[in-house]
Amino acid sequence: MTVKQRYEGVISTFQEIMPEPKTELHYDTPFHLLLAVILSAQCTDKRINMVTPALFERYPDPAALAASTEEEVFEYIKSVTFPNNKSRHLIKAARVLTEEFGGEMPTDIDNLMKLPGVGRKTANVMLSVVWNKAAMAVDTHVFRVSNRIGLTNNSKTPLETEKTLVKHIPEELIARAHHWLILHGRYVCKARKPECLECRIQPYCKAFTRR
Predict the structure, then answer these.
(1) CA distance 32 to 76
(2) Residue 211: is its pLDDT beyond 60?
(3) I need a surface site. Which of 56, 82, 115, 183 has the fewest CB within 10 A?
(4) Annotation marks residue 121 as catalytic
(5) Residue 83 to residues 16, 39, 143, 147: CA-CA distances in angstroms?
(6) Residue 81, number of CB atoms within 10 A of its CB
(7) Is 61 a catalytic residue?
């Protein structure tokens, strides 16, 4: 099977089984999505969705959060992973948004990455989810699944994975493909016990066909 055939098979199958994939993080504004994505690092979306309603109500915009304290923010997010660091990042990001961007969310990767707590993955999530841009955020699921099924070839870094996926996936599908790979990794192609016999992309999976 060629690389082109593998990509075409995987993409067509995902289009059939997940025509409109979406993020599982709950949010109402780009600012609130940013907070949720920062909080979701090394934490489950389910946990984040439990703590964000109260957080969003208390901090409706960057100015409100920028004026807060780490101690107060901590009380809202103390059940997530690394709450001390994340409290600090949330407040600093809100202050940069307020002071440097007039409270408006940047719409390009370079300016997004100027926000404390925002790396390339988080910036790409914002670009793809909010503005449907051709940005491929590579988290642990995307990285693992891409290597396992053969969309990448023993990729060593998230950036290498990102570049390979963007090269082979049609531009108009990249934002959706980000969700396809995350959801597939979360529910089917799991890290420890992948559910290969239940998997619809099994015919195109490099790991499965090697069995």
Answers:
(1) 14
(2) no
(3) 82
(4) yes
(5) 39, 8, 25, 31
(6) 15
(7) no
